[in-house]
Fold this protein.
Amino acid sequence: AQTVTQSQPEMSVQEAETVTLSCTYDTSENNYYLFWYKQPPSRQMILVIRQEAYKQQNATENRFSVNFQKAAKSFSLKISDSQLGDTAMYFCAFMKNSDSNYQLIWGAGTKLIIKP
Amino acid sequence: GAGVSQSPRYKVAKRGQDVALRCDPISGHVSLFWYQQALGQGPEFLTYFQNEAQLDKSGLPSDRFFAERPEGSVSTLKIQRTQQEDSAVYLCASSLVSGRGYEQYFGPGTRLTVT
């Protein structure tokens, strides 16, 4: 069975700093997708960034980028020039690419606090 | 445009009661997912619909849980004979296309409390 581990329950950084959130996963699959989702306080879950396992190039979305290490089964999220609005729970998630399975497997989340 | 909506936003049920939770996905979205999120934890997958077909229900925790999407749009998650361990936020998400790698758009969730 697939598992996703986020080892940092909570992180706190100053505004404008760079922060990296860690995520590791366990799978025997070779073809899968990885996601980072953000859940702001009392607001809906939104997608931050996604990565397809067969692509070696790390995904980037403006201030957000990932460091995808397939062999190490690691998928960390880097937030550059952090802003107050980045304060949220961040969840790492995994979905394998197989015919009958649509499960998105989630980590426990990292609470990120951006301080002014 | 309108996002995913869920109703009710909050539901208190006495143990043993049946509840029905509704999800209105974004219009035209083919895929619909249900998740259960316990307090302080990540979501857990419950079930997946592609249009009206329930293609994956492997995450439903017991036969007390039942989901349907009869016309391929609105979906209802029903929980029979609720138990205290069913207390959680139930999230619904939709996606424009079928398939696995696409962005899911989430609703605000229904917080269910079983007393």
Q: What stands out?
A: The longest strand of chain A covers residues 88-96. Chain A has a mean pLDDT of 93. The interface with chain B takes residues 4, 33, 43-47, 50, 52, 91, 93, 95-97, 100-109 of chain A (CB under 8 Å). DSSP finds no helices and twelve strands in chain A.
